[in-house]
Amino acid sequence: MKGVVFLLFFSIVIQAQEYTIPFLNTSVKVDGNLKESVWKLAPSYSGFHNFYPDDVGKAKNQTTVKLYHNGEFLYVAVAYKEEEDKAVISSLKRDDYGGVIVESECFQLIIDTYNKKTNGYLFGVNSSNAQFDALVGFNGNGFSFNESWNTIWKSAQTKKNGMQFFEIAIPLKAFAYTINDAVWGINFVYRDMNPNNWMSFTDMSRNFIQYDLRNTVPFKLEKLPKQNNAKFIVIPSTTYNHQKNVMDNKTTSEFVPSLDAQYSITSSLKLDATIHPDFSQVDVDQQVTNLTRFAVNFPERRNFFIENSDLFSNLGTNEVNPFYSRRIGASGNMQFGLKLSGNITPKTRLGFLNVQTNKREENKAQNYGALVIQNQLTKSFTSTVFMLNRQETDRFNFTDNFNRVAGVNINYKSQNNKWTGVVNLGKSFTSDVKNKNQFYNLGVDYTTKKIEGSFSISKVDENYITDIGFVPRLYNYDAVNNEVIREGYWSAKSEVSLLAFPEKSKKIQTIRYFFPSNTTYWNEKGEITQSLTFVNQALFFRNTASVFVDFSHQYVDLQYGFDPLNNGNSIQPDEYSFGALQLGYNSPFNKQVSYSVGVQYGDYYQGTRTRFYTFSTFRLLPFAKIGADYEINYLNLKELGIKPFHLARFTGEVFFNNRLNWTTYIQYNTQQNNFNVNSRVQWEYKPLSYFYFVITDNFNQYISRNNWGISLKINHRFDF
Q: How many domains does the chain have?
């Protein structure tokens, strides 16, 4: 009977072209019970559509959402009718996208406060009240998110008579917005793991990601406050680090005080400052086996670089990125940093950053600067201009050792959501280096439900130097002569994916029956140096399992010696042609135990490569989650040598509650001659105020200890 009452309570649905979030001058107790009378006054939104695995028709189990604001908080109430009593969850840990969003029953709220389809916010809460929040941004050919952004908000979840209820309160001060046009783009998504359904308020095709801002609809906010209530956030912290280097028998201990602050100049423009930041609590990188000739990059995890990070990180392409923030602080500790970012007008975003690092051994002190201006020219076109600078410093003086990069980007998004395009123009200026210092790129993507395709062509000059960027293919390591040679190149990449959806099949959800891609590189003389061709076919089942087969072929005109075995026996410059076949299977990931397994065999330069991998997850929720991964690459290069590369990873997460967890990573990587243990206790004793206790231990592959350390860190967030 109670379930019927709640269904009637949520039964009124507003059918309007422009939806409304009213101003109601009252607050609620966020407890998930939805008993306050104000919820009878707030408009109701329902009629959710199937999104995934099927994207046709209305959802069988409907979600109903109510919203209002009181000038201080945006309040959201959610009701969902479940088929099964037991909800599936995979994590109690905040900001665990895979655990909270992908592999748990959850509600998601996507908000574009400027309704410009460029950048916004993603909020999610699962059926155990674990929260997720992130910034969403357009990266040139689609949307991505950055979960390292955080704000303080409230949520609660209850379950009664087969109904799942969520109640949410997000402070308006968390958003960047303007009152000149108080229309926000919003979408709601509900994820039910038991029948494996994703449901969306807007009718969107399943080839889009659920937080794609192009699929939001306009909501008019009544009486949005003129000023952001929050002006100042201060986060002081202190860290104790104790490090022991066993190899040279040296011990260091130090206390590191630091300070982070944020001032809201306007509701959409923020000034961030950091003094002597410490990043000892940051998650460790997942190690990889790299059998290519070039470096790989890893994601940024430091909070200072996170907010509005899409302004800085999408200035080029995946292979030619002029700004890669992890370069900053790699050769010297950060002393201080300033960042001004956000909207200066509804259509114009500004990003300014300046960071000073200190001297470390032979590495000189450096000053890093970035200026980015992004302007929405029309509904489809956006322009970005930028200037980056790295300059050596001597106390308070700048020396003549510098590297600067300037550029212009034009991005295109069609109104029918099928086409995206990008044009990149860049030029670098480096002390004592002139000419041949430019970068050009043209790219286009096409996406429909059954066809996805892309094409791009790029030119990188040999002196397009980006000291705070990531352009790995520009630098060629010669293992024979132990030197790095900088060489410019052309590249062209094309791919197409053809999909079929057997509607009458009860088991198969999607067939990817044709997926070829090719990437080809030429030197500046117009000679092909490498060509990679890849062909894939895959079956995706309705229970989330999948199976695939792919064939890859490479042609390499090797110009410099390459030593993948790390034994001093290099593959000599010559022409090589080799291919490989790979088979793989991914089990349903909405089960208590899930896994992936794959095997690959083929030629590799003058020898062979055999690869096997397995990734597994064991969910013991709500108490724990365990991950165990293993990969072996067995290289047989004949007279040059035979060597297996092992990569093993164990991840153990113990959840005491939503605020206290213990995470341990154990990684064994014979390519890097490293066995690493990182164990971290994280306690959120107050919203976004943390205590960390971290132990790290590093050994070589023969389990002989190199070094170990202990870190204690506590920070406290003050909102004024």
A: 2
